[in-house]
UniProtKB/TrEMBL annotation:
Keywords: 2Fe-2S, Dioxygenase, Iron, Iron-sulfur, Metal-binding, Oxidoreductase
PROSITE patterns for the chain: RIESKE (PS51296)
Statement: the UniProt record of this protein carries the keyword Zinc: no
Keyword Oxidoreductase (UniProt): yes
Organism per entry: Paraburkholderia kirstenboschensis
Family: Belongs to the bacterial ring-hydroxylating dioxygenase alpha subunit family.
Transmembrane parts of this sequence: none
Highest taxon, organism lineage: Bacteria
Cofactor list: Fe cation
Protein name, entry field: Aromatic ring-hydroxylating dioxygenase subunit alpha
Ranges where the Rieske domain occurs: 47-151
Signal peptide limits: none
Amino acid sequence: MAEVHIKSHGELIRSREAGHGMPGELFGRQDVFETDVEVFFHKHWILVGVTADVPEPGDVSTVDIGKASIIIVRDDDENIRTYRNVCRHRGARLKEAVRSTVGMLVCPYHQWTYDLDGALRNTTHMGKDFDPTCRSLIPVHTKIVGTHIFVCLDENTPKDISKLEATMAPRFAPYDLTNTKIAFEQEIIEEGNWKLVIENNRECYHCQATHPELTASFLPEDFGFCPENLSEESLRALEEYKARNATCQASWESEGFVSESVEWLEGEAVTQFRTQQLVIAGDGESQTISTKVACTKLFGNITRRDLGDAHMWTHNSWTHVMSDHAVISYIIPLAPNKTLVRSKWLVHADAVEGVDYNLKDLTEVWVATNTQDKHLVEITHKGTQDPAYAPGMFSPFTEAYVDQFSRWYASRLNAHGI
C-alpha cells in the first residue's frame, strides 16, 4: 500500500489557489492550531482588553492565551501594567481568569507577595541570602491605544505597532475612551476555527440575508457590490452614496475628526490593521435599530451625534466607536474548532443606565449580530471538515479582504520559516 503523504502546515497554505479559500485541514488540524497560536497570538500584537476592565488602582483582569496567561493590573499611580501570570517561586498561577480587586498580588500556593509594580515584597522561609529583586513578576510588552490594551508575548515585538498607534490615537482622542465604563459584556464560544471567525468579519457578502439588525444602520453600498450591469436606479443610488460619504467626511474633517481610510494589511504589514469612518444610515447617529444614539451622554466633550462609525480591525479584533457608545470585540483561539469571542459595550463613565441609556437599545444590534455570526462560523467550519469540501472562489467585489487575509496569513507563516 502506498504511503499517504500528510502535507505540512506550509505546504497546505502554499497549495491554496489564488483567489480561493484555504484548504480544510488549515481549519481542523491540531498541529496547525498550535502553530497558529504560537505565531499569531504569541509573536504578534493582540488585543486583550480595554482600560475599563481595570478602572481603579488594584483592579486585576486575567486573560488566557493558549498555554500562556497574563495579568492586567492598574497600579497605585493609575498606570496599566501587564505581567505573566506565573509566580516566580514554583510557577503557580497567581490569579484565576476573573476580574478582582487586590492590594497586592499574593500567590495562593506559598503566599509569595508582589506589589502592583511587579516587585516581590514578601516571602517566608527563604533564608538571608535570598535576593527578592531577582524574582519580580515578568512584564509583558504593552501598548494602550485609545482604550485598547494591546500586548505582545514575544521579546522581539513587531515595530509597526507604532503605525497603528500613530494612526488610531488621534482618531480615538476626541472620544476620550479612557473615561468610559463597561455597560455590558458578552462571551460567546463559537464552534469554529479562529480564521473562519476573522474571515466572516472581513466581508459583508452575507450581511443583507443574515443581519437585519446590523444592516439597519449600514448603507447597502458598504457591503460591497458587483459594479457590472448596474440598473439606472442602482447607478443613481451609487452616486448618492458617494455624495453622502464625501459630504459627511468633509464635515467631520472640518471639525477635527480624522476620517480618511487607512489600510496596513499586506507587504511590510506585520501588525495588520484597517480603519475607516463609516457613514451610518438613517439618522446617521449610531449602530442601533433606530440609527439614533442609544446613550444621550456622549463620549468626551462631544456635542455632535452624527459622527458615523470609527471602525478598526486587527487580526484578532474589531471595533466600532460612535458618538455615544463603542463596541469592541476580540477573539482568543481555544481549539481548532473553538474560538472565544469577547465583546464589550462602552459608554461614558458618568452615564447612568435607565437615565442616559437603555441597555436593550444599546446592545440589541451586536448581540443579535454576534449570535448570527456564531451560527455562520459553525456551519462553515463543519463544511470545511467534510470530505466533499473544496475551497471555492472568492467574490472580488465583496470578499477581497478575505482573500487579502489569506495572503497575509501565508506571508506571516513564511516569515517564521513555515
